[in-house]
Amino acid sequence: MSFQEEKLKEIADAIREKDGTTALILADDFPARIRAIPSGGGSDFAVPLAVTTDAGALITAVNGEITVSGTAGEDGTAVLILTAPGEWTVMASLDGKEKTAGVTVKDGYEVKIKLSSRLPDGYTEVEYIQSNNLCQIDTNYKVVFNKTRIVMDIEQIGEQSSSAFIFQAAASGSYQCYIGRSSDTRWFYKFGTSASVYMDLDIVDKRVIIDCDFTKSTLFIDGHNYSIYKGSQTTGIFSWFRRSPGTYSPSMLAKMYSAQIYDVGVLLFDFVPCINPGGAVGLYELVNGKFYTDAGQGTLTAGPAV
After folding, report:
1. How far apart are alpha carbons 85 and 88 in whole angstroms?
2. For 198-227, how does the pLDDT look when each residue is reduced to its tens digit (9 = 90+)?
């Protein structure tokens, strides 16, 4: 290799070191490739653009007042360094023939990396889970009605033209407690054979907190407080999105963002919407470390990951 060839190779190596490319660079392309390298006082933005066309074609990329150019090598490839994000117009010309193409250069990418999570490895926390009208999530927990407080962050989806339930605790006989929507204009609460409490609330497609506190005989929904019958020490199996044991319809079309169950002020269940490692959508319960998914005939869908 002659002295001149060695110097040209050093120049080519220096260009590739700066722009991150590896392809052969023709000596005729040195000026354009050097001009395309961002200067120390300019922008640090640099994105290589590989253009494949006919060998020897002149390549020009334009973004506003910025112009970058080069020549396709013997392999028909030219690499230009784009120095700004946005819309670029790329033109190839050779022997009187010209063609253009457009390319959009993003100003960056975003990635979320959680170094710690409240869920076990493999679980993906999501903003909410959404039920259809055949869903039910069984906890198999026997709540003691007069000791229990149930809190949920939910959003009813669309109108409900008939009774639809957001939770129920069911015991033998008529000792059932549930809260739901009786029509498109009314919510209701009922315990056993006691009279129902009806609530006229306009909260369709609105995210609200529902706090049913049997220990205080109060029900709180969207800033409204109601007096309810708290029952006795009768126990009932608790389920989300379910009407009564053995029946799967109707449950409420709703998004659930979180939920908790307390026993005389002690947190027993803390539910987090998630997707388990196998892809099933449901609730992960933090206190006892257990995953719950649909036990009915419906479909739970997941909101966006958080």
Report:
1. 8
2. 777 777 788 889 898 988 888 888 888 888
Tens digits of residue pLDDT in 72-120: 988 899 889 898 999 999 999 999 999 999 999 988 877 766 667 899 9
As a whole number of angstroms, the distance between CA 295 and CA 180 comes to 19
pLDDT tops 60 at residue 247? no
Q: What's the DSSP call for residue 231?
A: -
Write b or e for each residue in 121-140: b if 16 or more Cβ atoms lie within 10 A of its Cβ, otherwise e. Answer: eebbbbebbbbbbbbbbbbe
Computed on alpha carbons and rounded to an integer, the radius of gyration of the chain in Å comes to 32
Strand partners, 116: none
Give the H/E segment covering residue 96: none
The amino acid that residue 246 corresponds to is G
pLDDT beyond 90 at 304: yes
275 in Cβ contact with 94 (< 8 Å): no
State the pTM of this model.
0.60
Can you tell me the distance from the alpha carbon of 72 to that of 58, in angstroms, rounded to the nearest whole number? 7
Percent of the chain whose predicted confidence (pLDDT) is above 70: 82
- Alpha-carbon span 264 to 246, nearest angstrom: 29
148: its two tokens: 């229990």
Dihedral in degrees, nearest 10, Cα atoms 25, 30, 36, 39: 120
Task: Check residue 112 and give its pLDDT.
Answer: 66
Question: Cα–Cα distance between 170 and 236 in angstroms, integer?
Answer: 4
Tokens 């129920």 belong to residue: 168
CA–CA dist 107, 305 (Å, integer): 23
